[in-house]
Design a protein that fits this description.
By secondary structure, this protein is of the alpha/beta class. The protein has 3 domains: about 120 residues, no CATH class; about 240 residues, Collagenase (Catalytic Domain), CATH 3.40.390; about 50 residues, no CATH class. It contains 10 helices and 21 strands. The longest helix is centred in the N-terminal third of the chain and has 16 residues. The two termini are about 30 Å apart.
């Protein structure tokens, strides 16, 4: 028996609009209101329109999260701070240790103080800063721009290789470091035991601080995007001035994951936690990382660490007011960062708002609500209860009556019939469609042939055709008969892997 599976990673096709019965629709509205009122965000949304909820994050003072910070320099680009000082490495490590962390949690604007205060004592953070690692290649070999075949120009040709090299060097140089303390969090609850405050085999948080400025600080000045555009090839690099090329070769501050070694990972309690990434040392891997320049202010580190906890950027749309003045995930303010908004704190489990439900769904009419400021310190339990009883709340959440909106994805080609597969929306999704064929009577070579139509985010998400002849125990990813018709040169797990389908099918 051969099974053919098309694996879909965060991409979308289409299904026709289908109206739900009135009774089912009303029941769905009521469930939605009840889940919102109960702060059960993980239940929100339709299975194909997933709400990316954030699991609560807690860390007591006795067992804080540990952030690993590694300083990075290059043969042709060293750190500017303490330049020429024989003790530069030690002084740099001490500088960033003091900038970012405080064992007493009392120093304002450190990550330690900020997140303990914002979480009302629910989350504690400390960290370790390692002296500079000098990489083997010049800056250009890691940060230079490149243009994948048939794709747009991109920054940082070898950022993943940089992270791997840095971690290998750090592990070798610091064998006595308490590496186990850097893995105290299981953010995905991968083993399904409901416990997130336990090791999962991966570094909890990793930040690389590289020497020099980031490309984001000079990109606009030299109008690099005007030169390196979708209509220009590799020769465009030679047209940049010396200064513009130096800017283009810088690293772009970013947060990402190491997209390598899919299906591999650390072995925890006899099971492989297969998220991919890179092995740092036996039993400890790294997947998620953040990369910033040496000129990054403390407020930016605060913002970026919010992403490590799962918070998204909260940017204004043209139809809404901005939140930049009172939400650090909207932007950064120097020298002191803004607060986290009530929404961010609720998402992380650090704040429980007073919830108001529409009267049509069992709520009562309310004329006014009294709110405390977000900077109010933690109260003793009895004081907190008294303030809530008096109608004074840290935050309020108003549940609006649900509305129904029909989502039209696209128009299907006639050859596709009336329905097509839709993967759903969300991050890190894997979707599969299965077709079982009995080929026991087949003679000779078997060829799979079918019409296909797809719309996939080019270069980021991929579809595959895989086959199995042992009832799904093992799978083989298949290439097209003519490899020239593959729009991608590799799959989602990086170079040298079997290509996937990506982009628009009309590009073939």
């Amino acid at each position: 028996m051969t099974r053919i599976v098309v694996g879909l990673l965060t991409w979308a096709l289409a299904v026709p609009a289908m109206a739900a019965p009135a009774a089912e629709l009303e029941a769905g509205k009521r469930r939605l209101v009840e889940d919102l009122a109960g702060l059960r965000f993980e239940r929100l949304g339709h299975p194909v329109l997933r709400w990316d909820h954030i699991p609560p994050v807690y860390a007591p003072k006795s067992r804080p999260h540990e952030l690993l910070v590694v300083l990075v320099q290059f043969p042709d680009r060293a750190f500017d701070r303490y330049a020429g000082d024989a003790a530069q490495g030690e002084k740099l490590a001490a500088y960033y240790q003091d900038l970012l962390f405080d064992p007493t949690y009392a120093k304002p604007d450190t990550l330690s103080h900020y997140y303990r205060t914002q979480s009302l004592g629910a989350y504690h953070l400390q960290g370790r800063v390692l002296p500079p690692v000098t990489l083997s290649k010049p800056l250009r070999d890691y940060g230079g721009p490149y243009r994948p075949a048939g794709g747009d120009w991109r920054n940082d040709k070898n950022a993943e290789g940089l992270v791997e090299e840095v971690l290998a060097a750090a592990a070798k140089a610091h064998p006595t470091l308490d590496w186990e303390a850097l893995d105290r969090w299981d953010p995905t609850d991968w083993d399904g035991d409901g416990l997130r405050g336990e090791p999962d085999g991966y570094l909890d948080h990793l930040v690389l601080v590289f020497a020099g400025g980031g490309q984001s600080s000079c990109q606009g000045q030299y109008k690099i995007d005007d030169v390196l555009n979708p209509n220009t090839g590799e020769a465009a690099l030679s047209t940049l001035s010396t200064e513009a090329r130096a800017c283009a070769d810088r690293l772009w501050p970013h947060r990402f994951v190491i997209q390598k070694r899919e299906g591999q990972g650390p072995v925890i309690e006899g099971r492989t936690h297969a998220r991919g990434g890179v092995e740092v040392r036996p039993g400890l891997w790294s997947l998620d990382y953040n990369m910033q320049s040496e000129y990054t202010e403390a407020s930016t580190f605060v913002h970026e660490f919010g992403h490590s906890l799962g918070l998204p950027d909260i940017y204004a749309r043209t139809s809404s007011n901005g939140t930049g003045g009172w939400e650090v995930m909207s932007g950064t303010a120097d020298p002191s960062p803004q607060n986290l908004s009530a929404w961010s704190r609720v998402m992380l489990g650090w704040l429980r708002p007073q919830v108001f439900v529409p009267p049509a769904f069992g709520g009562r009419k309310v004329q006014s609500v009294y709110l405390r400021t977000l900077d109010d310190p933690v109260d003793a339990p009895a004081v907190a209860r008294a303030k809530r009883a008096a109608g004074l709340h840290r935050a309020a959440m108003v549940v609006l009556p649900p509305k129904v909106r029909e989502l039209e994805l696209t128009t299907l080609p006639k050859a596709s019939g009336k329905q097509a597969l839709y993967s759903g929306q969300g991050n890190e999704l894997n979707r599969a469609a299965e077709l079982r064929l009995d080929l026991r009577e087949a003679k000779g070579k078997v060829t799979l042939s079918f019409d296909a139509w797809w719309s996939i985010e080019a270069g980021w998400d991929f579809a595959y055709v895989e086959t199995s002849t042992d009832d799904g125990r093992t799978w083989t990813r298949r290439r097209t008969v003519d490899p020239r018709h593959m729009p991608a040169k590799h799959g989602h797990d990086g170079p040298e892997t079997v290509p996937g389908l990506t982009g628009l099918s009309g590009d073939l």
